[in-house]
Amino acid sequence: MDVPPSESFWAAFRSLSKRYHSQGHTESAAKLDAVVDQASKNDAHNPAGALVLFGALVLTFLQQNEWNAAVDVGIIVVDARRALLGPNNPSTMTSMNNLVSAYWGQGRWTDAINLGRQVTEARKKALGEEHPQTMASMSNLAAAYRRQGHWRQAEAQELRLLEIKTRRLGEDDQSTLTSMGSLATTYSHMGRYDDAERLETRVVERSTRVLGDHHPSTLTWKSNLATTYREQGRLDEAEKLESEVLDARIDIHGPQHPLTLTSMANLASMYRDLGRLEEAEHLETQVVETCKEKLGEQHPQTLVSMVNLASTYRGQDRFEEAARLGGRAVATMKSRLGDQSPLTLTAMADLALTYQGQGHTDGAEALTAQVLRLMQKNLGPLHPHTLTAMANLGAIYQSQGRWDEAETLAEETVRGREKVLGKTHPDTQASMEDLVRICRVLAADQTTGVRPPHHS
């Protein structure tokens, strides 16, 4: 005999409460117990009314970045509403959209995409594409696409959202600015840094005027612009802007808030690029420890912070520590995100640099060649990260005395970087200097028949 949906979800919530208590998740358990008690008193015979209270609890968990609890409760609410109200009921679709947000927060981007597609299509049919709830679903889906590295799909969603919002709400509306900022972030991921900067500058200017200099949204877009400056090689501007954002976020949110941690990680990367390795290590150590405590060691944000710290260790010639930490992060990323995720590929490329620093040239070559093939396939041959992997492989060939192969890669890297980044970008300049050095070696070889040793 089937269990009625109302009895089933009550049992599920009570079972979840027991699990939280047994695992020591006392704060989540207390919040859940309070809602169970309230719903039992007021809506014991009204399952739809009880689910309103549990749906509100999901929102509370989302607002407090308690992603695991939001997913646990959200799944029960979605299943119960599907059974009670049907899959196309507005309340069901709302709970599905909230679950998409929770999956995104957990770093379960494939699950977020699969469910996000369902709710977006259902809302388009039931409400129309320009309904606010439909647009909210499209925005969540675009964010999941972007995190998973499906940048073309993200761009398509965000362009459509920006067109609708600009027409209906105006350019200065906060929702329009959010879509403009999201599109800029996607452009940055795609390596279209000039397009990203152009949009981000407009968003920051308008947000500062409309919302204020220290509004959380303004700070987010300033942080994104600082990251774009870094990718453009404008490190001093990047460091100055991100420092301002970090100070403001500590004042507003405190030192352990996810947005504060994002700014700390960004600023640490800028310090590393500037050669300020002790300052980078100090910030990155804090980020890793807090992410492990708040998100868990397998969360993508934690794993990225581990890779960043490993990169700083390598810069300090602490190769064993770098290999240990980076290797652990890569292994977990492969199992959690897959070996074709942009985050995994970046981490693999970084680990290969550590192998090279350790003198494990064969391992470095094999891993870098694998990364280059996968980046060419998944990111495209002219993506800046692909070109970096190409430059890294060329450097390995130089260390092996394979100058002809190094020259071929160096020429391709220069052409690609001139096209994508411009001739004045520091990475382009470095590639040009590299190519000149290789040409000198080959010229010396033709003159004397003896090639000089490579100097790294």
Automatic annotation (TrEMBL):
- Could you tell me which InterPro entries the record lists for this protein? NLR-like (IPR053137), TPR-like_helical_dom_sf (IPR011990)
Q: Pfam families, alphabetically?
A: TPR_10 (PF13374), TPR_12 (PF13424)
Name-wise, this protein is TPR-like protein
The protein's organism comes out as: Aspergillus heteromorphus CBS 117.55
